[in-house]
Write a structure and sequence with these properties.
The protein has helices at 30-39, 92-101, 154-157, 195-203, 211-225, 246-255, 273-279, 308-326, and strands spanning 4-8, 20-27, 43-47, 53-54, 59-67, 72-77, 81-87, 126-127, 130-131, 136-143, 149-153, 174-184, 233-237, 243-245, 262-265, 268-270, 286-287, 290-292, 299-302, 335-336. By secondary structure, the chain is α+β, with helices and mostly antiparallel strands. The structure holds flavin-adenine dinucleotide.
């Protein structure tokens, strides 16, 4: 087993934060992962594509395991569907491009979401009207405490909006090693209802889009809206959209009738965190190298050499200001260490 020491994680997280890992190992198959688990009783820090984390300090007290298990296989198919098992270390977007080249449908609306396949079930990633769970069959994972392998069905994953059992009861207990998807080979269920996709296709005079054209439309929209982490360090949406009770919403909407809002249930309403942050005056603001993106108030960015602590301090400044102005608490969506 090759454990490296004092490894910079700057290229392993999309914020581009330069912290070091005292002990670091990249595992390329499940045997290596099991060996790493057996020989290390100390804390573990599991790293995928690093696109949903803010690192605020050097990692001294845990072994960083970079899950870099590659490979994918069509395990079953019939005239209508293909079942594909993809290992955790495969890049999500590269997998989608591969599936589109094969003519498999289902994931096109989720093109260009950063990160790895093995992490995708954790927050049930989604975009433009589709979620991972729509094509998910099962995933394999290794229990950290015992090294035992377990298969999780869709029901066992308890998927919800940006949520799953891996973020709740089983948080930090399993390492996902592969995910199986069911994709369409024909009669694809195209979902272009999301406004921006329709507009983009119209702009390109496309009336009966192919899977690839939908994927390209999503890529174009995302590139126009979100900063590319390779150019400007960021971790996508930094905060979750807060959900408030109907009673609180009634008070809130008297004071702020112009606020956009989305009903979650009879008793709860979601308010876009980006709107709250923009109203609090943070959109486009820069404090040293930490800042809020000029087009997307929900995205915090690293303009160069910001430390994780500087980004975190800015996040807390925003949280306090939003709470002060609106009486609403906003909380990070990214994992903070
Ligand atoms: C520009 C940008 C845009 C984004 N847009 C979207 C979007 O549209 N929709 C969306 O849903 N998300 C979006 N995200 C968030 C991000 O892409 C997802 O959360 C993604 O699934 C993170 O994958 P990762 O491999 O980079 O995870 P990492 O950041 O490496 O890890 C995230 C968490 O999962 C744990 N983890 C990592 N791998 C494993 C594993 N194999 N088993 C168990 N635990 C593991 C880590 O310890 C950590 O707690 C965006 C991010 C960025 C930077």
């Amino acid at each position: 087993m090759n454990i490296s020491h004092h490894v910079s994680l700057k290229n392993y997280n999309t914020f581009g934060i330069d912290v070091t890992a005292k002990d670091f190992i990249a595992v390329t198959n499940t045997n290596e992962l099991l060996k790493a688990l057996k020989q290390n009783t100390k804390n573990l820090f599991i790293l995928g594509g690093g696109s949903n984390m803010l690192l605020t300090k050097n990692i001294e007290d845990a072994l960083v395991i970079h899950v870099n298990i590659k490979g994918k296989e069509v395990i079953k198919e019939n005239d209508d569907f293909a079942w594909i098992t993809v290992n955790a270390g495969e890049n999500w977007h590269d997998f989608i491009l591969w599936s589109l080249d094969k003519g498999y449908g289902g994931l096109e609306n989720m093109s260009l979401i950063p990160g790895n396949v093995g992490t995708a079930p954790i927050q049930n990633i989604g975009a433009y009207g589709k979620e991972l769970k729509d094509n998910f069959v099962e995933c394999n994972a290794i229990e950290i405490a015992t090294g035992e392998s377990k298969t999780f069905s869709k029901a066992a994953c308890e998927f919800e909006y940006r949520n799953s059992v891996f973020k709740n009861e089983l948080k930090g207990q399993y390492i996902i090693t592969s995910v199986t998807f069911k994709l369409t080979k024909k009669n694809h269920e195209l979902n272009t209802a999301y406004g921006a996709i329709e507009n983009e296709l119209q702009n390109q005079n496309i009336t009966s889009p192919t899977l690839k054209e939908i994927s390209n439309a999503v890529i174009a929209i995302r590139q126009s809206k979100l900063p590319d982490p390779k150019v400007l360090g960021n971790s996508g949406s930094f905060f979750k959209n807060p959900v408030i009770s109907q009673t609180d919403f009634e008070q809130f909407s008297i004071k702020f009738p112009e606020a956009p809002n989305y009903r979650v249930s009879d008793s709860e309403v979601k308010i876009p965190a980006g709107w709250l942050i923009e109203q609090a005056g943070f959109k486009g603001k820069q404090f040293g190298d930490a800042g809020v993106h000029k087009n997307q108030a929900l995205v915090l960015v690293n303009y160069g050499n910001a430390s994780g602590k500087e980004i975190w301090d800015l996040a807390m400044k925003i949280k306090t200001a939003v709470n002060h102005q609106f009486g609403i608490e906003i909380n990070p969506e990214v994992n903070v260490y």
